[in-house]
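re: ur msg from earlier - yeah i can do the acetoacetyl-coenzyme A complex, just paste it... oh wait u already did. ok heres what im feeding in:
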Amino acid sequence: MLLDENYKEIRDLVKKFSDSEVAPLAMQIDHEGVIPESLVKKLGETGFLGTYIPEEYGGAGMDYLDYAIVVEELSRNCASTGVLVSAHTSLCMWPILNFGTEEQKKKFLPSLASGEKIGCFCLSEPNAGSDAGSLTTFAEDKGDHWELNGVKNWITNGKEAKTAIVFAKTKKTDDYKGISAFVVDCETEGWNIIKIEDKLGIKGSSTAQIALDKVKIPKDNLLGPPEKGFRVAMATLDGGRIGIAAQALGIAQGAFDYAINYSNERIQFGKPISALQGLQFIMADMSTKIAASRLLIYDASQRKNMKIPYSKQSAHAKLFASEAAMWVSTKAIQICGGNGYTKEYPVERFFRDAKITEIYEGTSEIQRVVIAANELKGK
Ligand code: CAA
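and the outut:
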């Protein structure tokens, strides 16, 4: 896609950072299951942890397309690093930026935008995944504060996070109508990380289960109106899905680039395997799926920049890009053959990392629900 000079500059900047600072650590991050603090610090210093947060709140003052490019380019080398940035930005900072009061923005955004604090988003529970409205975590009004009790699951950045957006019912209902949103300091007493998941991929990204045991939340930390928290969650996920689509695109591009280089170097039957038309046709399909993913992501991002509805477009982008990443990374292993199946080569990591993009921030099936619901309403 043709980008104007400003976007090209951002791409060049983040590409250089990703190739020099992220790529050399990617295999180590996968093996050791942790992103070094020194890398997180650099992400903060470069502004990549506060891309679209306005400068008055300590951010880099960029836009939503810049952000998608940042997540894409980081994920091209390391999907764990890509999702740390994505969950922190889309799921924690954006709802504060969009639904927070001026005091809340001034209080919470600067330390998040600088990377001094990492953010997370606590919606899912052991028995509330795709059916997010059925969550049972409860925040009781204790007069001068709220008291939070419940269990939250699948919390990306859960180990590192110091600030969380937490969804809890403030009215006992069976559906989404009693849900409110809160900004919570993760160092409050009663915030207990009870499990860190051992996963197939994105090994450097922490995924936590968190028990909330009488966590005291100041009254001022209610985010948006009471009992309107489900709207906060849904609107936040509309943007989060652009971030995950960009992560998927980066994974697909990384796997594709590796497979192309490998096919030029690998000699069989007396010539590079890239000369075989059977492989060229696969490469052409990989290239097409990557290009189509990029167009959908950039379209959704530009709609968000222009403040026009993008719920359907972000679901399009996530659905298509995540399935493309799975397909492209599978084919990348096929092109690299036995070598591609080993841990000495990065394509098996891309393949393992791609799978989660079809699951978190709404499964592919949920994206289809969102797309169909929008179409049926004529949106
Ligand atoms: N923006 C704002 N509000 C929205 C909205 C949107 N995109 N979509 C729906 N809403 C509002 C509606 O207006 C309605 O509110 P009101 O009654 O106040 O008008 C309310 O939400 C309910 O709308 P629906 O009846 O359409 O919603 P539903 O109950 O049928 O559920 C769903 C829709 C799409 C299935 C939804 O439950 C959903 O998205 N589920 C998936 C949840 C998900 O993505 N979870 C991932 C968690 S995050 C994660 O992965 C962890 C991590 O750390 C990465």
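cool cool. Residues 87, 121, 123-124, 130, 132-133, 154-156, 176, 230-231, 234-235, 237-238, 311, 360-362, 366, 369-370 surround acetoacetyl-coenzyme A (CB under 6 Å). ping me if u need the other ligands too
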